[in-house]
Fold:
Amino acid sequence: MMLEAESQFTLTPSLVPRHDPLRPAATALLVIDLQVGFVEEGQLLALPAAAAILPGVNDLVRVFRRAGAVVAFTRHTVTDSGPCALPEWLSADPWSVRVAPLLASGAPAHGLSSSLDTAPQDLVVDKFRASAFNRRSSDLDAQLQARGIDTIVITGCVTNICCESTARDGHMLGYRTIVVSDLTAARTSEEQDAALLNLGVAFANICTAEEVCARLAGA
Structure:
């Protein structure tokens, strides 16, 4: 199955122009939801693949930070009040009831992994929907626009949920969108490959971390 998905991805022509090179002053690295609850062993939502990409994500964060690009970390967040609250039909679902306390602001599982390389100048954004760009999710779009950002590079988890949703909406908002294939994580290889295939056809450039660093250096 995985080989088939890789073959399809290689052979499928992309509708997205390659964004080359990357201008650091107009580029933001988005690190999606590498939180305690998704990274640390024993957590209900933990993904082994998410823990595995942490060293590579940190390397990329340092490269982007040294280049002068914006680095932004998102935290998936659940609230039961205000305009960002989930609709009742969803919040009442047994799985949502179980997960909501873990991802509430201030809960131990909600925080960014202590293994992440963060700095005071980085953005930390709570998002309340899968896509960081949804109108009921966060003010990430406004923060990036205020900094003159026109290109986003996406890493983190979960590839086929929050990373894919953010990439699609980012593309729709006009951002040049890149997804880092070896620094995103899903629960299965099939889900990882399917998400990258769908995004690569029409919504994002799919690159390895090495390729992204080369394009950043090329600027």
Residues 29 and 71 are 5 Å apart (CA to CA). The chain has one domain: 2-13+20-217.
